[in-house]
Write a structure and sequence with these properties.
By secondary structure, the protein is mainly alpha-helical. Among the domains are: 54 residues, no CATH class; 74 residues, no CATH class. The protein has seven helices and two strands. It has a two-stranded antiparallel sheet with strand order 1-2. The longest helix has 22 residues. The relative contact order is 0.05.
Length: 197
């Protein structure tokens, strides 16, 4: 198996092994720098449908459930997952898997505290939350142009974090639907000036 087999297209990456030496690679990079049409051929895969069938199959069939969620199957859901892995997946994508990871971590910490065990610090510093808005490179190669494609997810992420904080602080159990509703309410309150954050 090679990395090239899983690229979105034949022109989506440059591999040094394709060149005789460093000078050959440098010449090619200079050519790309001078030829916008050729350079853009290496970016077209971002806006075109995925053509690599091997990669498409991997993305469609992969179980995004992280290893820590795997348990001995007990429920019908879990038995179906083992017997018919392509029929049902616990997490539809990596983001949901990560949310599951965080949830497990919170419960593990709280359970440990309840039992009187010492728990190490799991506190993020404020500067760890200051991620810049999603950006992309401009025509001069500067990473400075705001990218609207990810802005909605980026801005909503803040309110989802605040909603999660509120639920954990209040020890409130809720559904994903109610969680999203709370996040949207916090976002709306912030827009209208009624928010506390």
């Amino acid at each position: 198996m090679s990395l090239q087999e899983y690229l979105p297209s034949n022109k989506s990456a440059i591999f040094i092994d394709d060149f005789e030496d460093v000078e050959d690679l440098a010449e090619f990079i200079k050519l790309l720098d001078k030829n916008s049409k050729l350079y853009n051929e290496y970016l077209n895969f971002k806006d075109e449908p995925l053509t690599n069938q091997k990669l498409k199959s991997l993305l469609l069939e992969r179980d995004w459930e992280p290893d820590f969620c795997r348990r001995k199957p007990k429920s019908l859901f879990e038995r179906l997952k083992v017997t018919q892995p392509n029929a049902i997946r616990r997490h539809s994508n990596l983001f949901h898997g990560y949310e599951c990871f965080l949830c497990h971590a919170v419960h593990r910490i709280e359970k440990s505290r309840y039992r009187g065990n010492t728990v190490g610090d799991n506190i993020a510093e404020p500067d760890q939350y200051r991620c810049p808005s999603p950006r992309r490179f401009d025509e001069n190669g500067r990473y400075s142009v705001h990218d609207d494609r990810w802005s909605a997810e980026w801005s909503m992420g803040r309110y989802e974090a605040l909603a999660m904080k509120e639920l954990i602080s209040g020890q409130i159990t809720t559904s994903e639907r109610e969680f999203q509703k709370l996040a949207r309410t916090l976002q709306e309150d912030d827009k209208t000036g009624h928010g506390e954050y």
